[in-house]
Specification:
The structure holds 2 protein chains of 2 kinds.
Chain A: H1 4-17, H2 21-36, H3 42-61, H4 70-87, H5 91-108, H6 118-147, H7 151-169, H8 177-184, H9 187-194, H10 199-212, H11 218-237, H12 242-261, H13 270-296, H14 302-313, H15 319-333, H16 337-349, H17 351-360, H18 368-379, H19 389-399
Helix pairs in contact in A: 1-2, 1-4, 2-3, 2-4, 3-4, 3-9, 3-13, 3-18, 4-5, 4-10, 5-6, 5-10, 6-7, 6-8, 6-10, 7-10, 8-12, 9-13, 10-13, 11-12, 11-16, 12-13, 12-15, 13-14, 13-15, 13-18, 13-19, 14-17, 14-18, 15-16
Chain B: H1 6-14, H2 20-44, E1 48-54, E2 61-66, H3 68-99, H4 105-123, H5 129-150, H6 155-184, H7 197-210, H8 219-226, H9 229-253, H10 256-260, H11 262-282, H12 286-305, H13 308-339, H14 357-371, H15 376-392, H16 400-427, H17 442-457, H18 463-475
Antiparallel strand pairs in B: 1-2
Helix pairs in contact in B: 1-2, 1-4, 2-3, 2-4, 3-4, 3-9, 3-13, 3-17, 4-5, 4-9, 5-6, 5-9, 6-7, 6-8, 7-9, 8-9, 8-12, 9-12, 9-13, 11-12, 11-16, 12-13, 13-14, 13-15, 13-17, 14-16, 14-17, 15-16
Chain lengths: 407, 478
């Protein structure tokens, strides 16, 4: 296990960190650096690590927190779990990664500068525990159903698995916690939940569905995706608070990504769908970090906020466009035309609220670290001015790890 | 002269750092330089291509290329943008003052205006459908921001209406492009071999919204009327017609969709043109009136599409003549708005020729372009009629379809002529209203005449023979 060393460093750093937060900060960054160099397709890991670094930087913005010192380590732990999820082909390790990426957010969500927000924490943890249970039972049933050749068990398993993911990442119809939590929690923890925590559930879902490779429950996944896009967009169109708009935008974005899951039974196109999912997750992660930091700072430079909003809308050649582009391409290749058309209509529906969001958060200059975080989040959207071939290549490599080899 | 395409890029980057007046001149010079280069290319029928980057499937090779059709669209866009840049300076100064904004606002304006115009110019040189889509969306978002920030009326609502409709149009076309990519494993224009029915249909539907056709046109009068006038003078003459360019490129690869559905598309074009042409008579707002006239003119393009090689030549020339005519007309509307403090209600205008004779004469030249009198519009109408005769034969007692189509096209032409001169009479002639003669800013009227002169020059030899010959040769019109 290559990740043992970073984990030990992290544990030591966190232990000392409660006294001296600086130690934890350094060890968290060291662990980050160590964890990404372990396998091929390093560019994807590096990008995710970059999300984590921005998360840590955003935490640094909070002057105090009941978790100070440990919070850096928690973010770093989430990154290690994400890297494990990308490369592991063992079922048990994947479930472990799922739990490892979920539990740190239970603590992070309560962090704020005015003590622990226990009420938000209770609400969030309740939903997450149910989601985790649904997910684990669903995953186990799906694999078990495959080994005993029972289609009905497998179908039930896939449905539970998808419901678990839907609740975990905040997709409709199980999205009720998202606007509440995003609105009441401190913006910085909310940005971590909206960014780094989203990768693992989808990676694992892809792997399990790819392994069982059945067409059962395909329609179920498609319908969940369609409901989520629509509910998210309608919710965001009718919201006025930036945090609530962002919450519903998460719901809609998760819908787009779940739509890509419907391609899993066509092995020849999975790499395209997975590339789309990764790009969409990156666009979502950087955009959410930038916007939530802007909410905390009560505004930002209008150029930055418009770039991020336009990326969410899917304007080429920004990052958000390529995510939707590859998801659309995969859907069309796999002949799921109805979902492709729904995705297009929904992406057009999203225009008004992103523009409103950009407007609400425009017109206030930032300074120092906040400027850096928001600026980097915005400028990284321009990364794909050159078509992201590197991601397609990485996606092909990562699909090689999709077939699970047993417990 | 591919370097002609780089001149606008310089304007995009540099212009915001200059004082507003110098920036206007700089932008105009950059676009004018591009115009001259591309005009020479159009006359000589030059062809060039530049590879940019090789992307993974389904995108394929991304490159820029120029052929005679690109040059024809390209020099029009560069020329109109150059003139609108000059015109923008006095108009936007007036608009910023009206909105209580400072001169600093010009920085944003020049950046967006130049990027908007340049993205349209680059679009007609894009060699990959994704690159084309990228430029389509850049032109959309820049024009959207210009309307959103500096438009009239309920500008934010109008801007969103415009954005959502044209974004749907673009996204539908994108799904069509992706289907093409699925069938051909590439989106490079030179490597696409087939375009299936479904892909064609999606691209066609998307472009019908953008063009727009009857029914899908509801966003256009709002957007074109409430945009700040220099933006209207780019939106209406240049942007909507780019939908025709996109269809043209797909048509060159696989014309069967249009040929197989010739009659319904033709009828739809006639319906669009007649409906919008009649709607012009009912308008009481100068800019809204011009917007309806745009819809009517785009009907010509749909008609011309169905008429074989001569019709395709008609599409190209119709784009040019409409661009020239409509940019002149929108700028006359703007000149009146700027000079008479927001005057755009036709009921309050009458005999304006007395007060602003230069604007009135420019409007006459603009309407002559629309109705195809003594300007390049005449050649456009000629080729549409020639296409009709080539496609359906000459009208006679036994050839009833030729009779019906010829008659409907003639009615379409007559309606354009009628509303043009009816509007002239309503606004500029007749009993003068209660205004006094004012001095119009020099940049509010002279650019209009420059456009008018080019539109007349292109009707006359030697320009007409050079240019039409190059197009005829390229398109293989018998």
């Amino acid at each position: 296990m290559e990740l043992t060393i970073p984990l030990i460093i992290l544990a030591l750093g966190a232990a000392f960190g409660l006294r001296k937060p600086e130690i934890s900060l350094v060890t968290a960054l060291v662990a980050l650096a160590l964890s990404i160099v372990v396998e091929a397709a390093i560019l994807v890991s590096a990008m995710i690590a970059f999300v984590a670094i921005l998360n840590i930087a955003a935490l640094f913005l909070m002057k105090k927190s009941y978790l100070r010192g440990v919070d850096y380590a928690l973010v770093s732990l989430m990154l290690i779990a994400t890297v494990v999820a990308l490369y592991s082909t063992s079922f048990a390790m994947l479930i472990l990664a799922f739990i490892l990426v979920s539990t740190p957010t239970y603590m992070l969500v309560m962090a704020s500068e005015s003590g622990a927000k226990v009420d938000v924490g209770v609400k969030y943890i309740t939903f997450m525990v149910v989601a985790t249970i649904l997910f684990i039972i669903g995953a186990a049933l799906t694999i078990y159903g495959g080994s005993v050749n029972s289609e009905s068990i497998q179908t039930v398993g896939i449905c539970l698995l998808v419901l678990g993911i839907a609740m975990e990442v905040g997709a409709a119809p199980l999205h009720y916690w998202v606007p509440d939590v995003f609105d009441t929690a401190d913006p910085i923890p909310a940005s971590i939940i909206a960014s780094l925590a989203k990768f693992v559930p989808f990676v694992i879902a892809f792997k399990i569905l790819f392994t069982v490779n059945t067409e059962k429950a395909l329609l179920f996944i498609g319908v969940i995706a369609a409901i989520s896009m629509l509910a998210g967009n309608i919710g965001a169109l009718t919201s006025n608070k930036p945090a609530r708009i962002l919450a519903y935008s998460t719901v809609a974005n998760m819908g787009y990504i779940i739509a890509a899951l419907t391609v899993f039974y066509k092995p020849e196109f999975v790499y395209l769908a997975f590339a789309g999912v990764l790009l969409q997750l990156f666009a979502n992660a950087f955009g959410k970090i930038g916007f939530f930091t802007a909410i905390r700072e009560e505004g930002t430079n209008s150029v930055f906020s418009y770039i991020m909003a336009l990326s969410f809308i899917g304007l080429p050649p920004l990052l958000g466009f390529w995510g939707k582009f590859y998801i659309l391409a995969a859907l069309i290749y796999a002949n799921v035309m109805w979902l492709a058309v729904l995705l297009v209509i929904n992406s057009a529906m999203s225009v008004p609220y992103y523009i409103r969001l950009a407007n609400l958060l425009s017109g206030k200059p930032n300074k120092g670290l906040a400027l850096c975080i928001i600026g980097i989040s915005a400028i990284i959207m321009l990364l794909t001015v050159v078509p992201p071939n590197w991601l397609i290549d990485s996606s092909k490599v990562l699909v090689g790890y999709f077939k699970l080899g047993g417990v | 002269m591919i370097s002609a395409l780089l001149a606008p890029l310089i304007a995009v980057i540099v212009a915001p750092f200059f004082k507003p007046r110098e920036a206007a001149v700089l932008s105009a010079v950059a676009f004018f330089a591009a115009f001259v280069g591309l005009l020479i290319d159009a006359f000589t029928g030059a062809y060039y291509r530049v590879d940019l980057v090789q992307a993974a499937e389904p995108v394929g090779n991304i490159y820029m290329f120029g052929d005679t059709v690109s040059h024809a669209f390209g020099f029009t866009i560069a020329f109109v943008s150059a003139m609108v840049a000059l015109y923008s300076y006095p108009y936007m100064a007036h608009r910023f003052e009206e909105m209580g904004l400072g001169e600093d606002e010009f920085k944003k304006y020049w950046f967006l205006h130049n990027l908007y115009a340049a993205s349209m110019l680059w679009l007609v040189y894009a060699g990959n459908l994704i690159l084309l889509y990228v430029f389509l969306e850049i032109s959309l978002v820049t024009s959207f921001l210009l309307i959103y920030m500096y438009g009239y009326g309920n500008r934010q609502w109008v801007a969103l209406l415009y954005f959502v409709w044209t974004h749907i149009a673009g996204a539908l076309a994108l799904v069509g492009f992706l289907l093409i990519g699925f069938e051909n494993k590439t989106l490079a224009l030179d490597s696409i071999k087939t375009v299936s029915f479904l892909a064609w249909l999606l691209v066609f539907l998307g472009m019908i919204i953008k063009l727009p056709g009857f029914g899908a046109h509801i966003w256009l009068p709002w957007a074109h009327a409430e945009a700040p006038t220099p933006v209207s003078a780019l939106l209406s003459p240049l942007t909507v017609g780019l939908a025709a360019y996109v269809l043209l490129r797909i048509y060159f690869i696989e014309p069967s969709f249009i040929i197989d559905h010739r009659i319904p598309i033709f009828a739809y074009g006639v319906l669009t043109s007649v409906y919008a042409g009649l709607a012009v008579f009912k308008q009481n707002d100068y800019k809204r009136l011009l917007a309806y006239s745009t819809v009517s003119q785009m009907g010509y393009i749909l008609i011309a599409f169905t008429l074989g090689a001569a019709g395709i030549l008609g599409v190209v020339i119709q784009y040019i003549s409409h661009a020239f005519g409509k940019s002149i007309l929108f700028m006359t509307a703007g000149a009146i708005i700027a000079t008479f403090h927001g005057l755009r209600d036709l009921n309050k205008m009458s005999g304006m020729h007395e007060f602003v004779p230069t604007i009135s004469n420019a409007a006459l030249l603009g309407f002559m372009n629309l109705s195809g009198i003594l300007t390049i519009g005449m050649i456009g109408e000629f080729y549409i009629l020639k296409g009709l005769a080539d496609t359906f034969g000459l009208p006679s007692a036994i050839n009833s379809i030729a009779m019906a189509t010829m008659l409907s096209v003639v009615i379409v032409f007559i309606i354009s002529g009628l509303y043009s001169f009816y509007t002239m009479k309503r606004i500029y002639y007749g009993t003068p209203a209660d205004y006094s003669k004012v001095l119009v800013h020099r940049l509010l009227d002279s650019p209009l005449y420059v456009i008018a002169i080019l539109s007349i020059l292109l009707l006359l030899p030697p320009f007409a023979t050079w240019f039409i010959d190059a197009l005829v040769k390229f398109l293989g019109v018998a």
